[in-house]
Every structure is written in structure tokens, then in C-alpha cells.
Amino acid sequence: MRFELKSITRLVNAGALALAAAVATIPAQAVEDRPAVDRETLVVAVEKEFQNLDALVTASGDSLRFGWQIYDTLYGFDLDGNLVPRLATDLQISEDATEFTYTLREGVKFHNGDVLTSADVKASVEHILDPASRSTRRPYFAPILDSVETPDEHTVVFRLKQPDGAFANKIAGYLYIVPGDYLKSLASPEAFAQAPVSLGPYQIKHFAPGGGELVLERFDDYWGEKPEIKTLIFKVIVEPVSRVNAILRGEVDVAVVLPFADYARLQKEEGLEVIKSPVASPLYVRVYTTDESSPLAKREVRQALSHALDTRSIVDSVLHGVGEPLGTFISRHYPYGSDPDLEPYAYDPARARELLRQAGYPNGFSTTLNVQGDMPRDLPEAVAAYWEQVGVKVKINRLTYAAFSRLNNTHASGPLALSQFTNAIYDPIHPVGGAFARDGSWSDYYNEQVESLLAEVNAKADRESRDRLFRAIGQELHDDAAAFFLSEFYYVFARKDSVKWDVQRGSGFLNFRNAGWH
Amino acid sequence: MSGFVLRRLLSATVTLLLMSLLIFVLVRLVGDPAHLMMPPEATEADRELFRQHMGLNDPLLTQYGRFISGMLQGEFGNSFHFGVPALQIVSDRLLPSLVLTFSALALAVLVGVGLGVIAAITRAQSVRQLVALFSALGQAAPPFFFALLFIRYFSVELGWLPTGGYGSWQHLLLPMTALGWYSAAGLARLTQANLEEVLASEFIRMARIKGLPESVVILRHGLKNAALPVLTFAASQFGILIGGAVAVEAVFSWPGFGSLMVEAINQLDFTVVQAAVVVSTLLFILINLAVEVLYALIDPRISHE
Q1: Which residue in chain B is spatially nearest to A135 when comparing CA positions?
Q2: What residues contact residue A81 under an 8 Å CB cut-off, 6+ apart?
């Protein structure tokens, strides 16, 4: 999980560029609905370079895009994020959620012909834990993992130092399986990235780092359902407007992460299907509530500022309708844990002024909103404008992506920071724990009730308990106005009409296992 | 001449060393890559481990020494993000960049000088106005604007050329025109002004009185004497084109140098930034050297001794 602000900005800014270019109004025209190459090939325009094809090392924002094509996991997620068996056929979780036992599928082959055993699973974990790998996954596993045991060739037992009810989701989201013997044969863990081997439905045919293209070829010994597409080509087209043009001209069959500003226009194009795919990670304003001297430490003030925001208008105008106001931090697009009936704070400036008066700020106050420089200019400005209407003056402080990350990761981006994350494990614990637990990496919030609910949820691995507990957490975060929840976040995709492709919902994962042609 | 080239190479080495120091310091002032490379939930201990493994905790002098000694062996270390040698990533981008820049420059010289000459010798007011319009447009609008317009009409509407990518002359046509127009505009104006001035001078009148054919008067006597400032300008365009190419590369998904550099700076990929700056400094040094040698060839009065 990492910040995805850059892409948002590009998306919204691209709208302005597109307008500038469209000197004359362009009538809707039919996109030629036939394959860019042929019916065995799918060409996908993606928004940034693939960085490192070692899916156990690279940032999850990177591996989300190629991981499910080249690699596979013990359990995985279906299109809605429910856990389903993949390389493992069975999972047993101990009552106290500290022991996770997977039974491996038999006869599964790696791209190099090796056959999957429990030793490969252990080696994959060790690859993550080895500091020399510089794995971005290490922080997820190192603190909680006690041991990985392999009692026989097809059984793997993960023992944890403390209960973790979401551990099965972490395994499904982060632990790609790689061949142990092959890893051992390499000169250094870093060398794996140059020639990655796994057991996913595709293997790498051509890749030059930074070269703008990744070509994958179907792996014929794949254990699961054979994909229809033989050759999968990812073309890197960084400029959003150029991705739109490429699909309009039919040079690519699918384009991902398109500008919000083009959503309505592309819907009118014949021959194109435009998809709004939820990422289940809200755009929100992080609040430093633990600083007692700050007005924002007071619940009434936060409630007032929540009532002062017309999030529906912000979604409609700034985000071009590609969004949805939400009542709490837990997105409606998680498979469990969100309460669909929880309404956002109503836009009510009079009530906001009244609450501010009650809290002892009849004349408002001044504060600062830190924004990563690439965020769409109008988003923080819209937020600031609404707050000024109830007397709260907001200084917008724009920072570069690098500077913002450093401040935001070290509890120095207060009192307010405009933020958004991606979801990679389909369990609300990740964003909620990070943003609202007392010791969360990007949390400056403390709420006793949330704290005890989080402790409870960590010890429960069953879905019903997690659903109930997260609903309670969501309700409390709403009532306490723990942050300012602006909108659900979506990606906009487009595909040619004759492309068969069910998108993965509720996360940033790109899943082309099921793609084909009608 | 060879002594001159040697001296220039020596001073080039100094330039390169200074540049390497500058970029080494600047890139470290920008930020800490550990925050970008590690996920937000990483602890300070995780980040510290990362820095240690990247050698970012060593004393600056040690790091700089490593950078310089590596540089002398053509070794810049692995890219933080791509995990492969930084120089390989940079050199992969070099050819596309040079192709784009030089073809844009060639187009600019051909069209710019051509139009400048026509405007200088024609008596038709309308032609002069057309050239003026061409120049005004080229200098007023940024290259990415033309890039977007071209794609809109020539690719999406008319379907003549691809919207972007790299690999054939069809891919090159639009980006090179979008990029070269600005320089062509400047060259047209400069050529016209210089040529008009030269053509009004005494020795041209003399040449005409001698009865030389008009083509010889204009090309041999006129243009050659007007060429020096034009050459200087054209050479100076090289840097502008490499810089200006960033936006054009982005719009056309051209796998060039500029977009790589911007991305590497954003990502704090120190090794790639360092390799890219060193390579581009070398490139500039070579081009400047070539231009100075050209000066001497065109105008023997310029002595480099």
C-alpha cells in the first residue's frame, strides 16, 4: 500500500490539458472495435513504468499491476475480494488467530519446471525477510511472524507472535510464491528481479526496465484455468490524455486509470465500454487530533467542519462525478465491515457555525492543510473555501510528493493532510489500523473505544466477527468525526466493446486472468 | 586545431567533475528515498535498514568517492527503483532522445533557414507575412500544445499517424514537428534578418555588379556570411530541444531521456539521476566542441590557436 496521489493529480490535471487541446468540439465517433494486434493478443495501456518485476520486493502499488499475471498466491481474492483457494486447497486457522495452516495443491509447476512444495513457500517468506532483498513487504511480516514450519511437502504452518485476524488476507495480498531452489542458485537476492520465475498464468517474454513495455506470454503448464489471451502486452503511456487518444484510435484494447474529466465523454463513444472501478480507499483529510492545543482536538469542531463540507458538490464538480461521498473511513466496497446505511455528514453550514460556537470558536480559527503538490489544485481549494464560509481560515501548504511522504510518514504533516491510499488486502484493518490506531503509521488519533474494538478485531479471524466489529469502528469514526471523509476513490478504465474483461473491484489489483475476446 | 581540441577536452573534464559534485549534493538535498521506497507503515527501523543497504548512511565523502570512482569505470550502481544498472536504463533512453532531438533540429534548420531565405529575398508581401505568421505561432505556443493538437487531428480524427510510441518514421513525424517548430520559428526570423542585412551590404552589390548569377550571390556570398549567428543559434537550440522534449516525450510516450530524468527526480532515484546528468553533460560538451570546430571551418578568421 502506498500513496497514489500522483496519479490522481495527473488524472484531474489532464482534464485541463484535454480542454486546451480540443479547440474545436469533437463529435462522438465510433472507435474501431477490432483487436489492436489479433484475437490472441491483448494490448493494455498502463499509467506508469513497471519498476521491479520481483513482486516480493517492489512497492505494492507496482506489483498490483503485474502480480496476478506472473505470480500466484496460496489463497487469493475473487472479483469482489472474498478469499478463495489458489495454490493451497485448504486453510485452518487456530482459535486464537496465531496459527495458520495451509495445505498445498499437488503437482503445481513453476515456469522453470520445478514442482511446488512447502519449502518454496518458506523460501518466499525468507526472501522477504532477508534485509539484502530490500523488500517493501518486510514491514508487514517481520514484526508479527514467529516461524514458518514445513511438517511435510504439502503443509505450511505460519506461527505468529501475536494474534492477527487479517493474516490470511495479508498472505493473499502480499505473499507471492517463488521457487526456493532457483532463489538459492542466484548470486544475490536482487538478481531475482532480472529474471523472475513464478507459477502464474503468464511468464515474461520481454521486459526492459524503464523501456515502456512489458510483454507476457501464456504459461502452458499453469495449474489453473488457462487464460484465453496468449500474449499480454502492457504499454506504458504516462500522459493520461495520450492513453485516452490511444484507445480512441484503437491502438490499445484496454486503457487503465483515465482522467476523470473524460469519463462522461468516453461514455458517449461508440465501440467503447467505460468502467468506474472502486479502489475502496477514501480520499480524506487526515487530522492530528492528539495535539490538545489544537481546536481540531475537539470533537465538536471536527463535526462542525464535517457539516461545513458539501462533499456531493465536491464530487460532482472537482472529481467530475467520479466519486461518492462516504460517512466513514471504511469504504462500501470492502467485502465486509462497512455499513451501507451510514450516511455522510449532511451539508449544513448553520449547524457548523452553531457547533463551532459551542466549542468556543464563534469566530473560527486558522489552520494549515498540507497537500502533496500533485493533488488536483481545486480539491484542497474547494475544501478550504467551504471551511472559510464558517469562519475557519485555511492555509494550503503544497509539498512535493517526496517531501509530503516524508512528513506524512513521520507524524509531521499536521494539523491537516489531504491523503489517499490504495487497498491491497481487502480487509479494512490495513487503512483503519494505519490511520486510526494509537500506534498507526500515519495516525495521530486516539480513541479508547476504537482502540479496544481494534484489539478485539485483531484476535478474530472469522468474517462475521470482523464484519460486526468493523461496522462498530466505522460508526465510531463517523460519530467522532475522526477525519474528514471526502469521497470514495475510483479508477476509470476503458475497453473495446468486443474485449471480455471483468475488472477486479474494491482494490488497485489489475487482473487479466479472465480477459478474452467476444 | 588538435591542441585546441585537447585543451577543450581538459576543461571538459573539469566541467564534468564540477557537474558530478553539484548533482551529487543537489539530489541529496531533495529528500530521503527511504520514505518513497518503503511503504508508509514501515517503521523508522525499517527505513534505517534500507538506508544502510543502499549505503546512504556512509559519510558523504565516502559516498562521493564511490560515485566518482564508479563513474570512471562507467559504473553508476543499480537504480533504486528498477533494480538494474542505472547506466543501462539511461543508455536505453539515449538513442530515442537523440533521434528525436536531432530530427527536430534538422527539421528546424531545413524549414527555418529555408523560410528565412525565402522571406529575405522575396518581394511578395504575402509570403513575408506567411513566414511571419509561421514564426509567431511557433514561438508563441509551447511544443506540448502542438503535440496535443497534432494527435487530435492527425491521429484521432484523420487516423494517419499513431498517437504515440516509438519504432518507425510514422512515430517520429508528429513529435519531431511539434518539438522542432519552436526552433524553426527562431531560425526563420534570424536567417531572414541576417540575410537581409548582408544582402544590403556593399560587397553583395559588388558581386551583383560583377554579374554573378543571383543564386551564387545569395547562397555563396549572402548566406555564408549570414551563417555564423544562425549556427550559434542552432547549436544553442540543442539544449532547449533536449529540455523542451520532456513534455513532448510525455504526450507521445516517447521513451526519451527527459521524461526519465523527471521521473527519476520525482522518485529520488539517486543513481539514475546521477547517471543521466553525467551522460547529458558529456553530450553537451561534445556538441559544443563540434560547434566550435564547425565555426573554424566556416569562418577561417576564427582561430583557435
Answers
A1: B38
A2: A280, A334, A335, A426, A505, A506, A507
Sign of CA dihedral A478, A482, A484, A485: negative
d(CA B77, CA B66): 10
Contact B89 A22 (CB under 8 A): no
pTM score > 0.90 for this model?
A: no
Q: Is A292 helix (H, G, I), strand (E, B) or coil?
A: coil
The distance from CA B43 to its chain's CA centroid, rounded to whole angstroms, is 42
Cell 481474492 belongs to residue? A77
Contact B31 A211 (CB under 8 A): no
The per-residue pLDDT for B1 is: 63
Residue B129, Cβ density class (10 Å: 0-12 exposed, 13-18 middle, ≥19 buried): exposed
In sequence order, which residues have a C-beta less than 8 Å from that of residue B31 and are 6 or more positions away?
Answer: A400, A402, A403, A406, B268
| pLDDT at A27 (0 to 100) | 46
Q: Could you give the angle at the alpha carbon of B303 between the alpha carbons of B297 and B305, nearest 5°?
A: 125
Residue in A with minimal Cα distance to B42: A139
Do the beta carbons of residue A386 and residue A310 sit within 8 Å? yes
Kindly report, residue by residue over B170-191, the tens digit of the pLDDT: 899 999 999 999 889 999 998 8
Q: Which residue of B has its CA nearest to A10?
A: B250
Contacts of A246 in chain B (CB under 8 A): 163-164
> Taking CB atoms and an 8 Å limit, are B163 and A251 in contact across chains?
yes
Q: For residue A406, list chain B residues with Cβ-Cβ distance below 8 A.
A: 31-32, 35
CA atoms within 13 A on the CB side of A277: 28
Q: Do B39 and A59 touch (CB under 8 A)?
A: yes
Task: Give the helix/strand (H/E) hosting B196.
Answer: helix B169-199
Q: A80 to each of A2, A167, A428, A464, how far by Cα in Å?
A: 21, 18, 14, 17
Over residues B263-275, the pLDDT tens digits come to 888 888 889 999 9
Q: What is the ipTM of this complex?
A: 0.78
Q: What is the pLDDT of residues A116-168, one digit of tens each?
A: 999 999 999 999 999 888 888 888 899 999 999 999 999 999 999 999 999 99
With cut-offs at 50, 70 and 90, classify the pLDDT of residue A10. low
What is the rounded distance in angstroms from the CA atom of residue A409 to the CA atom of residue B305?
Answer: 59
Relative orientation angle of helices B60-72 and B2-30, to the nearest 10 degrees: 140
Local structure of A277: helix, strand or coil:
strand
Q: Report yes or no: A242 at the B interface, CB cutoff 8 Å.
A: yes
**Interchain contact, B152 vs A251, CB within 8 Å:** no
Query: Using 50, 70 and 90 to split pLDDT, how confident is the model at A274?
Result: very high
Interchain proximity B31–A235, CB inside 8 Å:
no
pLDDT level of residue A16 (50, 70, 90 thresholds) = very low
The 10s digit of each residue's pLDDT in A435-494 is: 999 988 889 999 999 999 999 999 999 999 999 999 999 999 999 999 999 999 999 999
Q: Which of residues 356-385 of A touch B (CB under 8 A)?
A: none
Task: Average the pLDDT over each of A461-475, B37-51, B87-101, B138-152 and give the range with the smallest value.
Answer: B37-51
Mention every residue, 6+ apart, whose C-beta is less than 8 A from residue B300.
none
Pick among B41, B97, B146 to test the A interface (most A CBs inside 10 A): B41
Q: In which element (H, E) is residue A395 found? A: strand A393-399
Residue of A nearest to B250 (CA): A239
Residues within 8 A of A (CB atoms), B 151-170 only: 151-152, 155-157, 159, 162-166
As a whole number of angstroms, the distance between CA A318 and CA A303 comes to: 23
Distance in Å, alpha carbon of A39 to nearest chain B alpha carbon: 21
The CA distance from A403 to the nearest CA of chain B, in Å, is: 7
Mean pLDDT in residue range B117-136: 88
